């Protein structure tokens, strides 16, 4: 039988605005919770014994401004633990950031618009304002909660207690660190970066390398073509890739109390490429199409001829409605077109533009086995929409619509082919999945994800599903209901039990 322990967030006088960012699946929950001994329907494969960590934005207090968005929510770190006795434990806690503590002290929101410190209360000036709500990162026995507007916070992987802001033993100079690191399975090194590295609207990028033991061994700075949102990047065996899309920031706009991000449809995109162990002075910039945008990348790799191929979930404009609105881009959701798109360049050739081809359908949250990071991946998984769906998608998340289908793609050729798929009915949705490798080298492993199901007006059920990564269409091999209201996650990370045991 499950045991439950929880604590509700303090009640506030101000109510949450009734916009898409705070209703339905996006309704704030604000509850720290511990559930143990949850029953599993089916049998957990031995490989999935371990913990699935999730980053969940959830505002502790109603926002200072009613036009706030999902991505401003305080970070919560969630742990779904798969146990050897075929039970599951679930826990979620707030990340006690400096911002969270400052607002908890006064009992109300004190920080203003999304990523705009000029709109904060005067008495919080200089306080670290990151909410650490985007990606849990596991490396060298350490769990970090990250968001790209600040430095990460270290988290106890068992208790989920916040250990504090993390700067790699005082070596980190950048004010920011990405939420999308890349770890080379062959070397166990972590490659990462920080944009706006020395402050808001800066063009400075810090490129970082952390060794297998967690020591920051290299930090080099360079200038981007302009200040842009750089949510993700990629590595190959020999190169580091820095994509630049025209979602831009202006210091003058921030000082006037405006939005951090505005998308510029007529501005070029760029792809910066440098040797991953080289000097930033070796960076080459390749021009991409105007006005495009991508948040997440499947992988990058070099082929036998040394050509770099970079696969990304590319769209013809910024996918976030609140950024399009701030930009004066009036497009209906169905007018936002996208596809899993491959940019190819010869890092040693004479061409200065990317070559573009489509290798998969529209969608997001692409996924490959960790061992293939930076190497050729003949296949991968991603979330998308069922083209045969007979109704609207579940509303939720920063885009406003949740995915209801997971697919496996053949991306070895010039044009991707869907090899397998699991489409959920109307009223169901999938959060970003993680991949768990199999002990059998001929087996594709397992996919772990949180599934949402709307059962009534503002009523939802949630469960953790384990799928056979090579037989998605068969549905879950194991699933466990989580008897609590869950808000959509941003990103997650899988940590096997052996790694957790070794870190204690």
From TrEMBL:
Cofactor note: Binds 1 Fe(2+) ion per subunit.
EC number: 1.13.11.-
InterPro entries reported for this sequence: Carotenoid_Oase
Family: Belongs to the carotenoid oxygenase family.
Pfam families per record: RPE65
Protein name listed in UniProt: Dioxygenase
One GO-annotated biological process of the protein: carotene catabolic process
Molecular function via GO: carotenoid dioxygenase activity; metal ion binding
Keywords: Dioxygenase, Iron, Metal-binding, Oxidoreductase
Chain coiled-coil ranges: none
Needed cofactors: Fe(2+)
Residues that bind Fe cation: 180, 231, 296, 491
PANTHER family named in the record: BETA-CAROTENE DIOXYGENASE, CAROTENOID 9,10(9',10')-CLEAVAGE DIOXYGENASE 1
Keyword Metal-binding set for record: yes
């Amino acid at each position: 039988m499950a045991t439950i322990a929880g604590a509700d967030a303090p009640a506030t006088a101000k109510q949450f605005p009734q916009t898409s960012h705070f209703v339905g699946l996006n309704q704030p929950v604000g509850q720290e919770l511990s559930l143990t001994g949850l029953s599993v329907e089916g049998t957990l494969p031995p490989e999935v014994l371990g913990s699935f960590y999730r980053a969940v934005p959830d505002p502790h207090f109603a926002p200072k401004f009613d036009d706030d968005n999902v991505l401003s929510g305080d970070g919560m770190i969630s742990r779904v633990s798969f146990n050897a006795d075929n039970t599951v434990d679930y826990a979620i806690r707030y990340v006690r950031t400096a911002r969270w503590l400052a607002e908890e002290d006064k009992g109300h929101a004190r920080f203003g618009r999304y990523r705009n410190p000029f709109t904060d209360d005067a008495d919080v000036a200089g306080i670290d304002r990151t909410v650490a709500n985007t990606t849990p990162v596991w490396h060298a026995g350490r769990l970090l909660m990250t968001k790209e507007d600040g430095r990460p916070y270290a988290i106890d992987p068992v208790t989920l207690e916040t250990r504090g802001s993390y700067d790699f033993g005082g070596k980190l100079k950048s004010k920011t660190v990405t939420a999308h690191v890349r770890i080379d399975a062959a070397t166990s090194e972590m490659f990462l970066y920080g944009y706006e590295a020395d402050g808001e609207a800066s063009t400075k990028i810090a490129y970082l390398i952390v060794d297998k033991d967690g020591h920051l061994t290299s930090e080099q700075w360079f200038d981007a073509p302009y200040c842009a949102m750089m949510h993700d990047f990629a590595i190959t065996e020999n190169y580091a890739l820095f994509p630049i899309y025209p979602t831009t920031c202006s210091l003058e706009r921030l000082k006037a109390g405006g939005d951090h991000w505005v998308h510029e449809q007529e501005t070029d995109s760029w792809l910066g490429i440098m040797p991953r162990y080289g000097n930033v002075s070796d960076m080459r910039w390749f021009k991409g199409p105007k006005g495009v945008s991508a948040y997440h990348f499947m992988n990058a790799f070099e082929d036998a001829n040394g050509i770099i191929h970079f696969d990304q979930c590319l769209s013809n404009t910024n996918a976030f409605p609140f950024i399009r609105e701030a930009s004066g881009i009036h497009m209906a959701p169905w007018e936002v077109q996208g596809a899993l798109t491959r940019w190819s360049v010869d890092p040693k050739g004479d061409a200065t533009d990317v070559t573009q081809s489509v290798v998969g359908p529209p969608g997001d949250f692409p996924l490959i086995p960790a061992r293939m990071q930076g190497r050729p991946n003949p296949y991968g998984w991603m979330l998308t929409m069922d083209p045969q769906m007979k109704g609207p998608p579940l509303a939720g998340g920063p885009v406003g619509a949740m995915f209801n289908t997971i697919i496996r793609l053949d991306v070895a050729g010039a044009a991707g082919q869907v090899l397998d798929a699991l489409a959920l009915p109307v009223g169901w949705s999938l959060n970003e999945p993680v991949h768990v490798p199999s002990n059998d080298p001929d087996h594709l492993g397992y996919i772990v994800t949180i599934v949402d199901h709307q059962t009534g007006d503002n009523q939802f059920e949630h469960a953790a599903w384990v799928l056979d990564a090579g037989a998605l269409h068969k549905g879950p091999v194991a699933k466990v209901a989580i008897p609590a209201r869950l808000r959509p996650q941003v990103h997650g990370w899988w940590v096997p039990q052996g790694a957790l045991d070794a870190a204690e």
